[in-house]
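Supplementary Note 3. Input sequence used for the single-chain structure prediction.
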Amino acid sequence: MATTSSDRERTTAAAGDGAASGTEPRGVADGAESEPRPTAASRKAAAKGAPRAAKKTSAKKAASKSASKSASKSAARKRAADPEVEGADDGEPSSDGGSGTALVIVESPAKAKTIGKYLGRGYRVKATVGHVRDLPEKKLGIDIANGFEPEYVTIEGKEKTLAELKSAAKDSREIFIATDPDREGEAIGWHVAGQIRRKGGAPIRRVLFHEITKDAVRQALEHAGEIDEKKVEAQQARRVLDRLVGYKASPLLWKTVKKGLSAGRVQTVALRLLVEREREIRAFRPVEYWTIEALLEHEGQQFTAKLHHVDGKKPEIGNEAGASAILADLRGRSTFPVTDVKRRERRKNPAAPFTTSTLQQEAAKKLGFGSKRTMRLAQDLYEGIELGKEEGGVGLITYMRTDSTRVAESAAGQARDYLRTLFGADFLAGAPQLYGKAGSANTQDAHEGVRPTDPTRRPDAVKRYLKEDQFKLYDLIWKRFMASQMAPAVFDTTTVDFDMPGAPSVTAEPQRYLFRSTGSVVKFQGFLVLYKETREEGDAKALEDEQALPAVDVGENVPVRSITPSQHFTEPPPRYSEASLVKELERLGIGRPSTYASIISTLVDRRYAQLEQRRFFPTELGESVEKVMVKQFPEIFDVRFTSQMEGELDRVEEGEVGWRTVLEEFYSPFEHSLAHVNVDALIGEAHDLSKLADERCPDCGGRLVAKGGFFGPFVACENHPKACKYTRPLKGERKPAEPTDYKCQECGAPMLKRQGRAGEFLGCSRFPKCRGTRSMPTGVLCPKDGGEIAERRSKKRGKAFYGCENYPECDFVCWDKPVREVCAECGYVGAEAKSNKTRGAYRKCLKCGNEWDVPEEAEPVSEAVAV
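The predicted structure, written as discrete structure tokens, is reproduced below.
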């Protein structure tokens, strides 16, 4: 069955769907209702019993007062606990039975709670908790012949939510749809409006909350408009597209790769990027090259200069012999002559405020947050954080799904005023920086960039109210935005050339060698006093990271301490990290800001890719899926086509083309590809069947062939099913279990090494009577309690890690594989096998943390030549 998830996951606070706690109707005033006039006898009797009645009345009043007080406390507790509440008490009286109040409908309970406090008792705020209507799960739900008309049904479990919204709408004087201000939020609002609208009912208007602050919320209500039908149609077109691809293409994966797999229109293109990068890496053949660097010293300051030219051309040193020849030519030199000095001033401007994409990239590089985690935290900050009794719930940042960098003039002015008090006028930009991507086709310019709602609210001031991760992300967003309004950093950059001849030769003219040294010094910090972007592998070197050079003049001779040749090999392009994948998706126009996190998490959740050391590695399953999908649908899962489709959806939103037209143009070639499927050829594309030609059926001697079935591909006799019944799994007969010395923790019986979907594991030999299992041990003992360390995988992302077998009693974990190596410091047998590009392979002791390098075998490097 095709996946029916939305283009992105709505990250909302967990809450029940219970009804909002409404205020009780106001009671009738005492004595207001008319009674029959009393007679003289009754007045006498009443006077006689007055003292006793007075006592009873007094007791009743006390009880009533107590009950009223108790009920008030109970109602208050209920209102505090319920996320879908009426506005907080602001001194305004509530209306009888809810009539005369306005209904505000948002997506998340957290946002409902924050907005409810701002609006007061004249408003009731309720949450949809994400989508309420969608295509049906168990059928296509699209009438292709009738212009791709979608069939929407209430999502299972949302019946109660819709019933409550309908009930609340009946008693309301007006209704505001305030779902998130993007395409998907517009579609959710459209579905809700369609369900609660009734003839003669309250008017329904659309409200956009770009930030959740008291002033912004009230201003948004004053400027309420209508639901944008074109935006709804664009989202509807995307949903129908995704359903058609998923529902029609997924069965093909079941027959050719594995039962239960799912094909996604955009996710498959992202997977294609990962797989094609992996193929580039495998096909890459490293080429040896050498560089030569001189270490110089002037007035006690050391700096380096690299060989830049040989006889006016870029040096091409392909082996050690070539490097040694240059060193021999320079051996007699004790100084380098300064032949040219260039000095100039350079300015570096601050980066613009975050978009969704750049926020995810920087959070991945600087904080190590995955895209999904970043967006969940940003949602929390946008919807509102409780900042004590005085301020209550406050949205700390603007809406986080945007591809615009635009800044409101009022926000820029407020930031500049605050920066002036923090750093002085010299650190301000010459004028307010409003940014924005004028003319960009993909910009949702109704949104601003991601920024703090109040620039004067420093991260340190709200740190005590935030969780650790929330604080880190708010700190990042605040600093980036404030830095965007600051003056450029100013650098003095210097380039020094040392041009000299080599040793004289009898047979030929001496070669000329040009060594060049570059450096920069910060002259004025500007925005760097507050914020500095993070670099990762493959990024260019920043100006502030250049070496500082001493002051030298043309004609000076600078002493040389050493000349060092270094061996290198050309490297393949790096695997994608989360940050670089998001950057590439944005560059290619694949998906939109709201979809990046779900694209990445889907690839990992479906086990199409794994994250190891923050880099994506496509799995064998992922590569098989990519081969089948791209082979059968080369145009549909093409990068350019996917980007163009995003452009078409933008055109639908702008009203330039109809959504049905876009679907018709897409479906015709897609239907043609579906009608011409060669399952056997696709199985051969997805799996290595080279050995199958040499095998014969053990039952009748016939040839073995690969076939596609409902439960996935399998191998069968060519005479199957009429004359022979032989079949087996595609990857061969299941490997028999191997005995081990380990005992089952459940029953004490010996354990067997078995093969599962995620690799090898230990299982009880008494299975199925005993179902005891264990992860495969590594042979290294836990430094905490002596238990054996075994490989495990996280449930959500399938990421491999290593933990003690005595979990949860012991919480020891490590991310790199433990190996049995002895630490020279403490003698412990056990270390993590670590590696990085800068240092190479090294070990870190599990017990004391001591680190030591692992000698590289195949990289001989000549010794430095002292001169």
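Residues 50-81 form the longest helix (32 residues). DSSP finds 21 helices and 35 strands in the chain.
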